[in-house]
Amino acid sequence: MIKKVTPRISIINCITGSVIYESEKPTIKEAVVEAVSKGSNLRDSDLSGADLQKLPTAYINECSRDILFILEHLKTEVPGLRKALVEGRVDGSQYEGDCACLIGTLANVDGGMGKVCGAIPFYEKGTHNMGESFFLNIKKGDTAKNNSFVAHAVKLCDMVVKPKKVTKVKK
Predict the structure, then answer these.
(1) For residues 158 and 82, is the Cβ–Cβ distance under 8 A?
(2) Cβ within 8 Å of residue 140, ≥6 positions away
(3) Do the beta carbons of residue 28 and residue 22 sit within 8 Å?
(4) 112 within 8 A of 140, measured Cβ to Cβ
(5) 81: number of CA atoms within 13 Å, CB side?
(6) Under a CB-based contact definition with an 8 Å cutoff, are residues 134 and 151 in contact?
(7) Hey, which of 58, 88, 141, 157 has its CA 20 to 30 A from 100?
């Protein structure tokens, strides 16, 4: 969650409710950039009120790398995750149930939580993972049309399901 209290912007841990970072910057983007540049850990922060396009590239890249790492190890489940995202059936705050988070939705597609987590090397579920933290910004009913986090997650799914062909450079 992000609270704007003039003249401060507070980035809040959505699990504990504690303040992760406070800034006197005039925009959320500038506050997040400042927090990242000063080494603040924004895991567990809910940035759903922020426009993804206005968040720091470093934050988006780190989350994307984590999500792609997970998806590359669960390629057969990715189409099911993509479908759930498109249909608004993802809730980034829930590991279990019909409407679940990144890992929870992948687990629902095939084999359950143990199988899915076991397929990802060095993985321990939790919002300390940037991919899971990213998915905290997706709520049930969110689609690519109304949530830029969903739109980006669908794009990442497409990168795994429909990889681009590599062309050789002629010498």
Answers:
(1) yes
(2) 88, 89, 90, 91, 99
(3) no
(4) no
(5) 33
(6) no
(7) 58
Q: Which of 131, 151, 129, 130 lies closest to 53 in space, CA to CA?
A: 151
> What is the C-alpha separation between 55 and 5, in angstroms, rounded?
19
Q: State whether the Cα torsion 4-19-31-65 is positive or negative.
A: negative
Cα(1)–Cα(62) distance, integer angstroms? 20
Q: State residue 19 phi and psi, 5-degree precision.
A: -80, 125
What's the token pair of residue 125? Answer: 């579920």
Backbone angles phi, psi at 62, to 5 degrees: -65, -45
* Token pair in block for residue 81: 């995750």
Give me the average pLDDT of each 10-residue run along the chain (171 residues): 65 77 82 81 71 76 94 95 96 84 91 88 84 90 93 96 73 67
- Measured CA to CA, the distance from residue 25 to residue 45 in angstroms comes to 18
